[in-house]
What we know:
alpha/beta, Aspartate Aminotransferase, domain 1, seven-stranded mixed β-sheet, four-stranded antiparallel β-sheet, 13 strands, binds pyridoxal-5'-phosphate
Amino acid sequence: MTATPAIGPAWVRERVGALRATAQSHPNGIIDCNVGTPCDPVPDFVADAVARSVPLSGPYPLSVGSVEYRDAARAWIARCFGVDLARDSVAACVGTKEFVATLPHLLGLVDERFAARDTVLHPAVAYPTYAFGARYAGCRAVEVPLTAAWKLDLDAIDDRDADRARVLWINTPANPTGAVDSRAELERVVEWARTREILVVSDECYVQLVSGAATVLEAGGDGVLALHSLSKRSNFAGMRAGFYAGDRALVGALTDVRRDAGGIVPTPVQAAAVAVLRDDAHVEEQRARYERRRQVVIEACGHHGVVHDGGPMPFYLWLRATDGRDGWQLADRFARAGVLVAPGATFGAEGAGHVRLALVQPDARINEIPARLAAAEQESRS
Length: 382
Ligand SMILES: Cc1ncc(COP(=O)(O)O)c(C=O)c1O
């Protein structure tokens, strides 16, 4: 295991910038599948919920989230996963990126047992903010190697790193690989961490895009937090709403420091979040959109020696060239077809053979990909 290098070093930004320029020069324009920003609309009823909340939006909202917000989150967890949570086991966050980035630092403030440990364990191929959050807290970010199925290989964690670990991040369903942990796999991770007194935080922002996916909360709340975002589920990236839930004492302690630090979801956003959390029909529609796009692109890739060998979560494809080209070369091939993807190395060295394609362009644009790949291949041969 190695310490994670700085995220987004200048050479990576430059190289991705060059790919973007190539994709932009395509005669029909760029199809930008690089970043996981949803492109589809929020449900119509959101506007009403926001409008109704405006007369209430004068006073400072509660940092922990309104009673309605926390109850809507609890009801959603009970409905989807059959887990009942007390109201004080759930608290709001302003989207989840800020929570991921600040958690290791805040843990050091709330409990001296955490302060005595200086290591953040995270999947070796992962959302880069886990490593950033470690550095933000002055901690070591240590990669946990993944198995061939892109799951955490707990046996590969060095005991010395485990002894120093403040937190272990899981991400299921996973960005960028789409891998989904089963309930039994989550229970195993939790058991491993509990015996070593390491906090497990499971980032589950894509969970409702896979039918039947499990939450870490099914393993009980002790020493465990689950982190949920509305950004992907309800196309709420611009609204900034999420919540964390689990270990009651820790949720209480984090709520206190987060209030002092000013982490507050605005009242209209809380009202909108309550409305979308009470509805699953729009999520089903969204999931079906991603599934359709996924089929179009996987099939097209299959004609050009490119396979998806990640998991079933349909927001991202995790693609590999069967001819042995690495992720940068494959990204270049996509860019020549006007499609911008994220080279896998930007998520960790173990991802170097892959690219991540986010299915976040409207159907009409995604439907152009097969013909574009075919034309780019033709051109490269001529
Ligand atoms: C794994 C993961 N966690 C957290 C986030 C942050 O989402 P948000 O801040 O919109 O809730 C993202 C966004 O792409 C993500 O992929």
